[in-house]
Amino acid sequence: MKKHYNVVYYNTMKGIVARVVFSSLFAVLMISSLNALTDVELLRRADDLVSYLDTDFSAEYTIVEDKPGQARTTTVAAIFRRDAQEAYVIVILQPSISRGQGYLKQGGTLWFYDPESKRFNTTSSSDRFQNTNASNSDFTRSTLSQDYQVIAGEDATLGKYKCRLLTLLSKSRGVQYPRMRLWISEDGLVRKSEDCSLSGQLLRTSAILDYYKMGDRYVPKQILFEDALKGANVNGVFVKERTLITITKPSFTGVGDYIFSKTYLEMVNDQ
Predict the structure, then answer these.
(1) 158 by DSSP, 3-state: which?
(2) H/E element, 218
(3) Per-position DSSP letters for 113-142, written without gaps between them
(4) Cα 112–131–99 angle (5° rounding)?
(5) Residue ranges in the chain assigned as alpha helix (H)
(6) Cα(155)–Cα(130) distance, integer angstroms
(7) How many Å separate Cα 148 from the centre of its chain?
(8) Pairwise CA distance, residues 134 & 126, whole Å
(9) Which phi and psi (to 5°) does residue 227 adopt?
(10) Eight-state DSSP code of residue 97
(11) CA distance 69 to 198
(12) CA-based angle 150:153:158, to the nearest 5?
């Protein structure tokens, strides 16, 4: 009996050790694979990890805006994305004064719907979202590798993360920020960006504080935006405006085609 127990124990421990070794080896290979990428390939990889071309995406976004000297504001919105068609829909759920307002992006066109006037007006992806430090373009899929060229890259450390720090220059005038400094960690995920003017002046800092891992896909849990220029003096200290987005209820369940339409935004407000 004792001999049988020892055999079972030995085999069990051998299996555990094998799994640990395999997991460690996989992690090392993963990091080695990322380190072997060129900076351009790494940027493309960062896009791919948070783009969902093979499925729909939906979630609830809670957007908290802190403006020094003013009351904190909170906006809650339902988000639907269909990256394969460059489409998204945003429906404002809170506060009550903005409830029912919505956004519809189809390709290169973005509409804003006002339920009071029952009218659609075109708006810009670079406009501030609901007067926060987030832009309308922050709610669509990542296209950094399409919009920017890498002009420099270096190894860097960001808190607990070993990163590749890329300096990016826009390929066209259509992007909101002509220059960018981007920190990508060893797992291929964007951790921080500094959004700059063409001359290099810092305009906004973004930090992705954490991610959900859902199969092979990643979804940001929290994104913090800090405006480098807007703020106010509080007790003799300049305090910058900040916006914190918390993403909950992420889902890759398909949604109906009717969601991505003006009719849907009108229908939501008729219910």
Answers:
(1) strand
(2) strand 217-234
(3) EETTTTEEEEE-TTSBGGGSSSBGGGGS--
(4) 55
(5) 2-35, 39-49, 144-147, 262-270
(6) 36
(7) 17
(8) 9
(9) -80, 125
(10) T
(11) 31
(12) 120
Which residues partner with 92 through β-bridges? 77
Q: Please state, in angstroms and rounded to a whole number, the distance separating the CA atoms of residues 41 and 27.
A: 19
Q: Do 267 and 256 meet the contact criterion of CB atoms below 8 Å apart?
A: no
C-alpha–C-alpha distance, residues 195 and 206, integer Å? 8
119 backbone φψ class: left, alpha, beta (φ>0; ψ -120 to 50): beta
**Whole-prediction pTM:** 0.84
CA-to-CA dists, residue 46 to 16, 33, 53, 161, 220, angstroms: 33, 14, 14, 15, 12
Q: Which amino acid is at 75?
A: T
Q: Using CB atoms within 10 Å of the CB of residue 245, give its burial: 0 to 12 exposed, 13 to 18 middle, 19+ buried.
A: buried
Amino acid letter at 57? F
DSSP class of residue 258 equals G
Amino acid at 63: I
Q: Using one digit for the tens of pLDDT, what is the confidence trace for 121-172? A: 999 988 999 989 999 999 999 999 999 999 999 999 999 999 999 999 999 8
Residue whose token pair is 């950094």: 144
Task: Examine residue 250 and say whether the peptide bond preceding it is cis (omega within 30 degrees of 0).
Answer: no
Q: What is the DSSP letter of 107?
A: T
Q: Is-contact 66 232, C-beta < 8 A? A: no
Alpha-carbon gap, residue 222 to 61, rounded angstroms: 9
**Amino acid at site 84:** A
| Gap between the Cα atoms of 267 and 22, Å rounded | 53
**Identity of the residue numbered 56:** D
Q: 63-118 pLDDT, tens per residue?
A: 999 999 899 999 999 999 999 999 999 999 999 999 999 999 998 899 999 999 99
Asked if residue 140 lies in contact with residue 47, where contact means CB atoms within 8 angstroms, the answer is no
Q: Measured between alpha carbons, how far is 68 from 83 in angstroms, rounded to an integer?
A: 36
